[in-house]
Amino acid sequence: MHEVTGWAAPAPGAAPQPWTVERRDPRPSDVVVRITHCGVCATDRHALAGGDPAAFPLVAGHEMTGVVAATGDEVTDLAPGDRVAVGNIVDSCRTCAPCRAGRENDCDAFPTLTYGGEDRVSGGTTQGGFSTEIVVDRHFVYALPAGLDPAGAAPLLCAGITTWAPLRRFGAGPGTTVGVVGVGGLGHLAIRFAHALGAETVALTSSESKAEAAKALGADDVVLTRDPDALARQARRFDVLLDTTGHPLDLAPYLGALAVDGTYVLAGIPPATLAIDPMSLVVGEKRIAGTGSGGVPATREMLDVAAEHGIVADVEVVGPDRLGEAMDRLGRGDVRFRFVVDMAQSDTARR
Q1: H-assigned helices in the chain
Q2: Which tens digit of pLDDT belongs to each residue from 71-80?
Q3: Are 258 and 236 contacting, i.e. CB atoms less than 8 angstroms apart?
Q4: Max Cα distance, the chain (Å)
Q5: Tens-digit pLDDT profile for residues 60-100
Q6: Which pTM was predicted?
Q7: How many C-beta atoms surround the C-beta of residue 124 within 10 A?
Q8: Number of C-alpha atoms within 13 angstroms, CB side, residue 317?
């Protein structure tokens, strides 16, 4: 074991502060990653605000970029200095049917999460990317394509793959119409990816101030949902509606806007039970689907497409000493569109 600097919340609701994190010495298949940037996700905020007290101190952060510092003896395709990325999954059983199909995020035994998970080999609780270094099995370390800014690319490892995977799964592409509900941390990347895939891309937002931003991101059209008749005018327009809001919406008008065989995808998880009129699914043979991250092949493909089209997140970069402030502002929606922590600034912050 060796010690690195992390930024941990000592208890639920407490602001993150410097803390010594123990990292395992690299196993033969491991990669030691010196983290340069780590995105701030709403999941991080929820975990730090209201997680199990027994899991604290907790180092959150699960969308990171950095460079290889060292490798285990069995790793032959990465070398010190290579640019890499790590997401919200750092291990899985790799033997079940989903894992063998490249759906490690759907592992039958549940994947090992970047923080708050249990190390499958040595036990102990995993700690995340708000730290100067992490040690991860090579299978879950991604080469970061040249040309992608490491700060803007960090959120691709969560927000990016969470929106990319359902767009691919449900056939977004030329000849289809994709509606992205919400223009925020998830939604702005969903718009960029849907546009890159060649779909007619429509942003659906309650905020008139985001209409121009959505078009700049690649939206072909914007529907302002504060207009009570706006969705009614979209009847049977969308092959895919990707809900990135995380808010409980009245689904009836959105389902009415789906084309025959259309899919309403929940990418942002609302904190309430959904009320659904069954006939809204029967008429037009529509479906509601969920999505949560993606497996290794999908993540690699997403990064390649991001590099080809120059897709990164719009970010505000902060130092780790402002992580608590970033969490607070994220809770108020005061960011456009994603916070990223420059972890290099924490090199001298150890205690």
Answers
A1: 42-50, 97-100, 150-153, 159-169, 187-196, 211-217, 251-256, 279-282, 296-309, 323-331
A2: 999 999 999 9
A3: yes
A4: 62
A5: 999 999 999 999 999 999 999 999 999 999 999 999 999 99
A6: 0.95
A7: 12
A8: 15
